[in-house]
Amino acid sequence: MSDAVVRPEVCDAELDASGLNCPLPLLKAKMELNRLASGAVLKVIATDAGSQRDFRTFARLSGHELLHEEVDAGTYLYWLRKA
């Protein structure tokens, strides 16, 4: 993960998975990534703390790049670049 690679406001698509429990935020993100072109950036908003582990593992295993992640008052934000 490289925090300096992308500014948080830069993304090609945004997915609000707030209120969903794992694994639904990750499953919805995978579906959204399938729609995007290679190199596109997806921002995901989640509220499930378990999503941190899920998105980190997913990025490592899938080849997609987890560009940045933030936690703010129980909201988890992820920026993924599609491989």
Automatic annotation (TrEMBL):
InterPro entries: TusA-like, TusA-like_sf. PROSITE patterns: UPF0033. Belongs to the sulfur carrier protein TusA family. Residues 15-39 form the UPF0033 domain. PANTHER family: SULFUR CARRIER PROTEIN TUSA, SULFUR CARRIER PROTEIN YEDF-RELATED. This is UPF0033 domain-containing protein. It comes from the Bacteria. It comes from Pseudomonas amygdali pv. lachrymans (Pseudomonas syringae pv. lachrymans). SUPFAM superfamilies: SirA-like.
